[in-house]
Design goal:
Blueprint lengths: L10 H7 L4 H52 L3 E5 L18 E5 L13 E5 L6 E7 L9 E4 L16 E7 L8 E5 L5 E3 L21
Antiparallel strand pairs: 1-2, 1-5, 2-3, 4-6, 6-7, 7-8
Length: about 210
């Protein structure tokens, strides 16, 4: 005869089946909360850094499109800041994070009008940076736009502003070591500001440290 080995659940057995106690769950939740709070600043910094790098690459791509259009069409092409992705912004020194447009510019400089044709549109960026357009000597352009001639060369900088231009990308907290730039040479070629070791501040076109705002 087979012996019945079934035993009724004991109080100890029932406690095992019930899983974690409320106190244990509260301890786990508290530990997770502490770990999350500790990781939050690092996560924010990572998101901010990735946002700035993404904005830099998008600007470099947009400048490449403007130069390519200028050369392929044999005419002046402009890239300008645009808050509505239809016309150039009227004010100077605004935040390019609002977006920008590229268009053929055959009539009034820096204005989409007449026979001008819209080539490409970029909407608002990721709101991780304040992006401003600067002359080589850190001044502001008259109008937030850059022009490229039929050879793809930057054509709306003068000897008074210095040849070349750059976009400065400032973190919202204006920490200098977080500042990045897209440097544009006299030939119109864009490059990201150089990475430097030990978290040092990157440089503008004159070799001076980038500062914000």
């Amino acid at each position: 005869m087979v012996k019945d080995t079934y035993k009724p659940a004991t109080a100890h057995g029932l406690q095992k089946l019930q899983g974690y106690t409320m106190v244990e769950l509260m301890v786990v939740v508290a530990i997770v909360a502490v770990l999350a709070l500790g990781a939050a600043p690092s996560l924010r910094d990572s998101l901010d850094r990735n946002g700035r790098e993404s904005a830099m690459q998008t600007l470099i791509s947009a400048i490449g499109v403007a130069r390519s259009e200028a050369v392929s069409q044999g005419r002046v092409v402009t890239i300008c800041r645009s808050t509505n992705q239809t016309n150039c912004a009227a004010s100077t020194g605004g935040d390019w994070d609002d977006g920008w447009i590229v268009f053929t510019d055959g009539s009034t400089a820096g204005t989409l009008d007449g026979t001008d044709a819209l080539a490409r549109v970029w909407g608002p960026s990721n709101d991780q940076s304040v992006i401003t357009l600067k002359t080589r000597l850190n001044g502001s352009f008259t109008g937030d736009y850059l022009q490229f001639n039929a050879s793809g060369i930057l054509s709306n900088t003068t000897s008074t502003t210095g040849v070349g231009a750059y976009f400065k990308l400032c973190a919202k907290d204006n920490v200098a070591t977080k500042t990045r730039a897209v440097l544009i040479s006299a030939t119109g070629r864009p490059t990201p500001s150089a990475a430097v070791a030990n978290g040092a501040t990157q440089k503008d076109l004159t070799g001076a440290a980038l500062v914000c705002p």
